[in-house]
Design a protein that fits this description.
- The complex is a heterodimer of chains A (206) and B (658).
- Chain A has 206 residues and is mainly alpha-helical.
- Chain A has a domain of 127 residues: Four Helix Bundle (Hemerythrin (Met), subunit A), CATH 1.20.120.
- Helix content of chain A is 71%, strand content 0%.
- By secondary structure, chain B is mainly alpha-helical.
- In chain B, a hairpin with a 2-residue loop joins strand 1 and strand 2.
- In chain B, helix 2 packs parallel to helix 4, helix 3 runs parallel beside helix 6 and helix 6 runs antiparallel to helix 17.
- Classes of the chains: A mainly alpha (206), B mainly alpha (658).
- Chains A and B meet through helix 1 and helix 5 of A and helix 6, helix 7 and helix 8 of B.
Chain lengths: 206, 658
């Protein structure tokens, strides 16, 4: 209370320093790793849901009746290449190169959009061939699994474009490259999940 | 209020800039202080405890005698479903979360959790989910499929009205809040421990919170998938559990129990941690076998993911699966037994002070042991086949979750109430509360063992008199109403002690851990100086170096031999020094965005319900029903997700201080 009478305390600093943590790691980074662990269980449950019914589908079309492996391979390749672009984006900002950060973020999200566009076209084609959510457990588990993966990619694109907008305003500098690194962790994870889905769902013959 | 906001003139203030008023309704709605959020969690959970308790009393009133007609069969289904769901998701979990919030940062010597705004978000999402779950009461469609909601009973053709949708959406939203809290406490405990507090110096309650957070992070996504599958089956015509499209209803049981069994430990581990804090303090001895306790908690958590199918022994899993799950279930008794023996050894030879908190903790050990023993019986498939869906199972899980979790949580309330509110709870009323709870609890659930082995099925709304189940059912009902009286005593105690309770001071119980080194209630910033920790139970060692017991864990080597001090020990410095100017401690300001984001999620959930049929019901009297119907209501979900997105943007971009 005696502070009221005395001179006001020095103006508080405008930037609160990053608190030192027990492990020395950044809190948000640890949070992202925990989230990815959690998301493993999420996709694990969805993938197991697919595997439980795999090959026991009633009637036609089954997912394997309508797969177009070469087509999906191309969009899978686009998604994998986006991971490379993501790595280059992070490397750029760690050097302090904002211009290349913007270029590579745009490339990453562009390749992500190619993947999503491909998925929309793929879903539409499959629906035209009669595979839908309710035709059999094949349609159900395929669309829900790949649909939630697509949702993850879409959220990732929104995130990357938000970072791009911030970078364009000069708000992402070498010092806070961590924002890009954490988005990258998420992006790579979503890519790895697709490798598993593509192998398990598409490539292994029934 | 505007006049008080000029502290940082350089920051432009937007429409939802961080509010800074220290009191008033908005200060609570926008708070990101872990202590206030803890109080919000605790108060809300207690309200739902009363609601779930009333539901239980109605169930017991109906079962008090044979051929009773007080409550109809359908209402009875709704009552036991909502009782179970409420007590698990809206009482025990948020009450545990209240302790996580209030106590963990204090125990690890931190100023707040790692993500204060995420913490506020967790609470508001929890409240949103709780409201969505209970909304069915407003339109007379109360969830009535049991707390584990087995398919195919939950599919549209068997549960056509919206009741099940309220359950699905409510739980889905609750799960989001729980996951957010799980992430937050996981990161907080990994990252924000005071200097010197190694993992093996963490208080046991911190340990159980840590492990519980891991369980939440790994188990709740599976529930989310199960609920998504069920929701899609009901709303969008998928066939996950629908045999017409080749789906197998049993998949629901697997998915639900892969979540459901870790959930049991999510419910009981925090209470175990609380008891492990209370017993040493009132035995005036450090916890016996601390490392074994830690490893036991970790082992229980690991094993909890390998036992789910013991809920499904009667579904025809085949002998190999049944043998495996029987063995893994019995294995869990080993770490659990280690914990029970360690609690007993902690009390053994101690100078016991039988406060209310200690009585509840001892009650926990005794009641949990009984519940654990009946649990080991279920682990044996032939016995389980007899017990399946009888009152024996009801008796078992109430001994674990009421005799266990609730006793532990009540103990925690008596133990930490003085830290939270600065005043002690009345010990006489407290002991009366304990006595009534102990007697009422055993009267209610003890006889259910007899009823169960006599073959009384759970979830029947009445029974004929020639079954001879009248006597024990009447005893159980009397016990339940005794519990009701005990809760009234507790409420009286809380209300009167808040006003007239004795001032507690910093350290009313001669505590062992860091939270007792600071004032009661703690200041906004908790610790003026972040303490440095040199041993387990640092405050205890500082006050009572002669009692020792920490030779192995102290920085300073041997402290005592046979109770005789053998060395001059520099005492760990955990006392708060006043030489730090509190104004120099910089805490983030409150924020509107967590509430905005949570409200978005609430709208998204509401939109699903509206699209599922609630819209037509709500707007039926109005002309609008002719223009808007069915799937168009899902636009509300879209709008809700947009609000959520706006909330996340506002959250990410706002400065630390308004």
């Amino acid at each position: 209370m005696q502070h009221v009478a005395t001179a006001p305390p020095a103006a508080p600093p405008m930037h609160v320093e990053e608190h030192t943590t027990t492990t020395g790691l950044n809190n948000r980074k640890v949070l992202m790793w925990a989230f990815l662990g959690s998301d493993c269980m999420f996709f694990g449950a969805l993938i197991i849901g697919f595997l439980v019914y795999r090959g026991k589908w009633i009637g036609h079309p089954t997912p394997h009746d309508v797969f177009d492996i070469p087509y999906t391979s191309v969009s899978a390749f686009a998604l994998l290449m986006s991971s490379l672009a993501m790595v280059l984006a992070l490397a750029a900002i760690q050097r302090g190169d904002v211009k290349r950060l913007i270029i590579w973020l745009a490339t990453t999200s562009g390749l992500g959009l190619v993947f999503i566009g491909g998925q929309i076209y793929e879903f539409t084609t499959m629906a035209a061939h009669g595979l839908n959510l309710s035709v059999n457990t094949g349609g159900t588990t395929f669309f829900v699994l790949t649909g939630f993966h697509g949702t993850h990619v879409t959220l990732g694109i929104i995130w990357l474009l938000s970072l791009l907008a911030l970078a364009a305003q000069g708000k992402i500098k070498q010092g806070n490259s961590l924002s890009v690194e954490i988005a990258g962790l998420y992006w790579h994870f979503v890519d790895i999940v697709w490798i598993i889905i593509f192998t398990v769902v598409y490539l292994i013959p029934v | 209020m505007a006049a008080t906001t000029v502290a940082h003139p350089l920051v432009r203030r937007g429409p939802l800039a961080r509010p800074v008023a220290p009191t008033g309704l908005w200060s609570w709605i926008t708070t990101i202080d872990h202590k206030r959020i803890g109080i919000l969690y605790g108060t809300t959970a207690f309200m739902f405890f009363l609601l779930g308790g009333i539901e239980a009393l109605l169930i017991r009133a109906q079962l008090a005698r044979s051929d009773n007609t007080l409550i109809a069969a359908g209402q009875f289904n709704a009552l036991f479903t909502m009782h179970g769901t409420t007590m698990i998701f809206l009482v025990v979990m948020p009450l545990s979360a209240a302790f996580f919030n209030y106590i963990i940062p204090l125990q690890i010597g931190a100023r707040d959790v790692a993500f204060p705004r995420l913490n506020a978000f967790s609470y508001w999402v929890f409240l949103s989910g709780a409201i969505l779950l209970n909304m069915g009461f407003l339109v007379g469609m109360v969830p009535d499929v049991g707390w584990f909601a087995y398919a195919p009973n939950t599919l549209k053709q068997y549960s056509p009205n919206l009741a099940t949708d309220f359950w699905i959406v409510g739980l889905q939203v609750l799960g989001v809040g729980t996951l957010a809290a799980g992430f937050n406490f996981l990161v907080t405990i990994i990252q924000l421990r005071a200097p010197g507090m190694t993992l093996m110096r963490m208080p046991l309650f911190t340990w159980t919170t840590f492990i519980t957070s891991i369980l939440i992070v790994l188990a709740f996504p599976v529930l989310a998938v199960a609920l998504i599958a069920l929701m899609f089956d009901r709303l969008f015509g998928t066939v996950f559990f629908n045999q017409l499209g080749g789906g197998q209803p049993i998949l629901w049981q697997h998915m639900f129990w892969v979540f459901g069994h870790p959930e049991v430990y999510i419910l009981v581990l925090p209470a175990m941690g609380i008891v492990s804090e209370i017993l040493p303090v009132f035995s005036r001895k450090p916890l016996f076998g601390y490392p074994f306790m830690v490893y036991a908690v970790a082992a229980i958590a690991f094993l909890s993911f390998t036992v789910w199918a013991h809920h499904m022994f009667t579904t025809g899993l085949g002998p190999i699966a049944v043998s495996f799950f029987a063995a893994s279930t019995m294995l869990i008794a080993v770490p659990t037994g280690i914990k029970i023996f360690n609690w007993i050894s902690t009390v053994y030879g101690g100078s016991l002070k039988l406060t209310t908190a200690a009585l509840f903790a001892l009650g926990f050990v005794a009641m949990f042991t009984i519940g654990g023993l009946s649990g080991v019986m279920h682990a044996s498939p032939p016995i389980d086949t007899q017990h399946q869906d009888t009152y024996y199972v009801v008796a078992h899980f109430h001994y674990v979750l009421f005799g266990g979790a609730i006793f532990g949580l009540f103990g925690g309330i008596y133990f930490w109430f003085p830290k939270v509110f600065g005043r002690l709870l009345n010990e006489n009323l407290g002991k009366l509360h304990w006595l009534l709870t102990f007697i009422g609890f055993n009267l209610t659930f003890g006889p259910m063992h007899f009823l169960g082995v006599d073959g009384m099925p759970r979830r029947i709304y009445t029974y004929p008199s020639n079954m001879n189940w009248d006597l024990w059912n009447l005893v159980a009902t009397i016990g339940a109403y005794t519990l009701g009286v005990s809760v009234i005593v507790f409420i009286v105690n809380i209300l009167s002690s808040l006003k007239n309770g004795k001032w507690a001071g910093n350290d009313p119980w001669d505590g062992m851990t860091l939270e007792w080194t600071i004032s009661s209630p703690p200041p906004h910033y908790n610790f003026a100086t972040i303490p440095t920790v040199h041993s387990r139970d640092p405050f205890w060692l500082q006050k009572h170096p002669e009692l020792g017991g920490h030779e192995l864990m102290s920085d300073h080597g041997e402290v005592t031999v046979g109770g005789e001090p053998v060395a001059e020990v520099p005492l760990p410095d955990v006392h708060e020094e006043a030489h730090v100017d509190p104004h120099s401690i910089h805490m983030p300001d409150p924020s509107y965005w967590p509430v905005v984001a949570a409200f978005g999620l609430f709208l998204a959930g509401l939109g699903v319900l509206m699209g599922g049929g609630l819209g037509d019901i709500v707007f039926y009297p109005f002309i609008i029903a002719d223009y808007v119907s069915g799937m168009q209501y899902f636009a509300i979900t879209g709008f809700g997700l947009f609000v959520l997105l706006v909330g996340i943007y506002g959250w990410s971009l706002e400065p630390v201080n308004g």
